[in-house]
Design a protein that fits this description.
Blueprint lengths: L1 E10 L2 E7 L3 E5 L6 H13 L20 E9 L1 H13 L6 H8 L4 E9 L5 E2 L3 H10 L2 E5 L11 H9 L3 H16 L6 H13 L9 H12 L6 E2 L2 E2 L5 H22 L5 E5 L7 H13 L5 E5 L3 H10 L4 E9 L2 E6 L10 H5 L2 H5 L5 E5 L2 H7 L2 H6 L6 E5 L4 H7 L1 H4 L4 E7 L4 E3 L6 E3 L18 H19 L14 H15 L3 E4 L3 H5 L5 H11 L6 H9 L3 H11 L10 H7 L5 H10 L7 H15 L8 H8 L2 H14 L1 H14 L11 H5 L3
Length: 685
């Protein structure tokens, strides 16, 4: 019904855009991407149907040589043709005969196009009568929640006028009925009214006649015995903005539904950010009202509300369209989001939360496994030094396939950049007999051919070659390691990890070489980490025992022991239980010492360690850093920021690589290399 397709060319930031519409259409995305431009294009189209309405701000400001735009709307006449056909058969009144005939002569769908050149009259592909009928049959009503006076609803009477408006012949009959009241001696109105007309004539004052809509709205106010709205016998001034906003929109929807039922019209309503001032429970009720009227009204809604989006995704059936709006190089782009109704797994509706809905409004999504990773990338010191992280939304649940199908742009097909972060043990595990490694997960199918086999581009062929090398190294590699923690510095094993990381990064997945704990406690920084633990008293109960254990170990063993103490894994991706299971000769006293000292993943040591490191780094350059504000101020200095970031590169090389990948992707400069470019890394030497 109503509008089924919109095509916009060279209108403001929209170079070319085609939208196929359903009954409920939701525009989502960041601020400044062009959602309002889409709404304004539709409003401008309607404003020009019967009068000239040229405006300089309608043209593509990204191209100063572009002085022409076009807007095309496709209308569906099927429902109207059915109604008019039925009415012609049973309606003996010929007042609407010409109207019915015009509708019956239309095709099932027809496109009306506006073309406008700057400074010239608008050009249409149909005549004025056609456009007048379009305006009558598919009226547009627009509500911008930021501009509506929530205490003055008088404009609703104009819409009520559309509902109550009758044919001019019927209007004349109503006027005659009213005149009969005036002429009735009982009311004594005729003489006074005649004198009033004479006074107006002497003053040379004329009264402009009502339009049919104005006439109908005036009669409606008379029948209602007033024209001032109130709520529960209270003035609108006394109600909250949220209550008034909800009631206003709710009443508008009710009136438009009546227009659909009683008139030969299919209303189109634009709601621009209807969630403004609404409590989330009122957003829930508004969603129910919208979904309950989808058969009568065509909705075009621009929103920044994750709650509204979540409700639509969870409750929609097959009559919704969610359009993600983004912007690249100043131009607006759109993409249709894959709805839950198109997915056979109904758990998506059950598990969807407001936080998941936030992903659809993100500039960049980093999907992580759990709270530890969230704690790292939400760290305020790290964000002060790498400010682009403030525009990154951290989403937990990377290891949960249901959550990934809810939030992943890859599954839902919206245009937000994203990266998945996972531990290496999700893809690589040591075989039970300790002879080789096994690949697992959907990215490394068993004997099935990978999808790269069926593509012939250079990048795809490189991926296939990587996969072959990965499989060969995993299955045939015999990597050197030493006890008790299965420590490994074998260059072939490092090459296997590097290949896996490069291969997965092509799938928008960053695989840590061990775990997030391994990213934070590295070969170069773990002595400093132990200093932090000593100062913070992390292992105070067993400090003497740990010092004794460290004293007899090689450096790499000390590193693996430290990672185990914070619930991480060793080089071969084993936790303490797996090490003890495979190494039956593991010292039970050492095991007891580790178990009694071990810190949980969310014990607070991550934030403490990062704060300790960044403050120490700043002090090494002579910057007093007793508070976060002092560090943040220091990080704003360009030269000092360079050296502070270089310290991150030296002490957290894998974390730095991940940050560099995110930065490049967000700036649109991600290259072919899977790792941080050599020239960038060299600049920090």
């Amino acid at each position: 019904m109503s509008i089924t397709r919109i095509q916009i060319d060279n209108f403001r930031s929209i170079k070319h855009c085609v939208l196929n519409f359903d009954n409920i259409n939701l525009l989502i995305g960041e601020n400044g991407t062009g959602k309002s431009n889409i709404l304004d294009a539709v409003r401008h189209f309607y404003a020009c149907l019967l009068q000239e309405n040229d405006s300089a701000d309608c043209y593509n400001f990204q191209n100063r040589f572009s002085n022409e735009f076009s807007i095309s709307l496709t209308f569906d006449f099927r429902h109207l043709k059915q109604i008019s056909g039925n009415n012609r058969q049973r309606d003996t009144d010929s007042n609407y005969e010409g109207y019915y005939k015009w509708i019956s002569g239309r095709r099932q769908s027809e496109t009306l196009t506006l073309r406008q050149i700057n400074g010239k009259a608008a050009r249409w592909n149909q005549n004025r009568r056609y456009r007048q009928n379009i305006l009558n049959l598919f009226p547009l009503y627009a509500v911008d929640a930021r501009q509506v006076d929530l205490t003055d609803w008088s404009q609703l009477w104009d819409i009520i006028g559309d509902l109550m408006k009758v044919h001019r012949a019927r209007e004349a009959e109503i006027a005659a009925e009213i005149s009969s009241i005036k002429d009735n001696e009982k009311y004594k109105l005729e003489e006074r009214f005649t004198k009033l007309l004479e006074s107006l004539d002497r003053a040379n004052i004329q009264i402009k006649a009502y339009t049919p809509k104005q006439y109908a709205s005036t009669i409606s106010t008379l029948l209602c015995k007033g024209d001032v709205f109130s709520f529960k016998d209270s003035k609108l001034d006394y109600m909250s903005n949220g209550t008034n906003a909800f009631n206003y929109t709710n009443l508008l929807i009710e009136i438009l539904k009546l227009i659909f039922v009683y008139k030969i019209k299919e209303p189109v309503v634009i709601l621009d950010e209807p969630e403004i001032s609404l409590h989330h429970k009122l957003i829930d009720r508004l969603t129910e009202r919208i979904l309950g009227c989808h058969d009568a009204i065509r909705f075009l809604i621009a929103t920044h509300s994750p709650r509204l989006l979540k409700n639509i995704l969870k409750l929609e059936q097959s009559n919704c369209m969610i359009i993600h709006v983004s912007q690249t190089n100043g131009h607006t782009h759109t993409a249709a989001v894959t709805l839950f109704s198109q997915d056979s797994d109904q758990r998506l509706r059950i598990f969807m939360t407001d936080q998941h809905a936030n992903a659809y409004f993100s500039r960049y999504i980093l999907s992580v496994e759990g709270a530890s990773e969230n704690e790292v990338f939400s760290n305020r010191y790290l964000q002060a030094l790498f400010p682009f992280l403030r525009d990154v939304d951290i989403m937990e649940g990377m290891s949960d396939d249901v959550v990934q199908r809810i939030i992943s742009p890859e599954y839902r097909h919206f245009q937000t950049q994203f990266l998945l972060l996972a531990d290496m043990d999700k893809f690589l595990v040591r075989s039970g007999d300790n002879t080789h490694f096994e690949l697992r997960g959907k990215y490394f199918p068993g004997k099935e051919l990978p999808r790269e086999r069926y593509y012939y581009s250079r990048l795809r062929s490189e991926q296939l070659l990587r996969l072959k090398r990965i499989r060969a190294l995993a299955e045939q590699g015999r990597f050197r390691f030493w006890m008790p923690f299965y420590s490994c510095k074998d260059p072939n094993f490092r090459e296997l990890l590097r290949l896996i990381q490069e291969y997965l990064l092509r799938r928008n997945l960053f695989a840590a070489s061990t775990t997030v704990e391994g990213m934070l406690i590295t070969y170069s920084n773990f002595p400093s980490f132990l200093e932090y633990c000593r100062e913070a008293g992390i292992f105070s109960r067993n400090q003497a025992g740990l010092d004794s254990a460290y004293s007899g170990m090689l450096r790499n063993d000390r590193l693996n022991l430290t990672r185990l103490l914070v619930s991480g894994k060793s080089d071969f991706l084993f936790n303490l239980d797996e090490i003890c299971k495979r190494n039956t000769g593991f010292d039970p006293k050492l095991k007891s010492l580790i178990e009694s000292s071990r810190q949980g993943k969310t014990g607070g040591w991550i934030s403490g360690w990062l704060e300790y490191f960044f403050r120490k780094s700043a002090r090494s350059y002579g910057i007093p850093c007793k508070t976060f504000s002092q560090f943040a101020e220091a990080a704003e200095d360009q030269d000092l920021r360079f050296f502070l970031r270089r310290d991150v590169w030296n002490s957290f090389p894998e974390l730095f690589d991940l940050l560099e990948i995110i930065r490049q992707q967000m700036s649109g400069r991600s290259g072919e290399r899977a790792w941080a470019p050599a020239d960038v890394r060299a600049s920090y030497r």
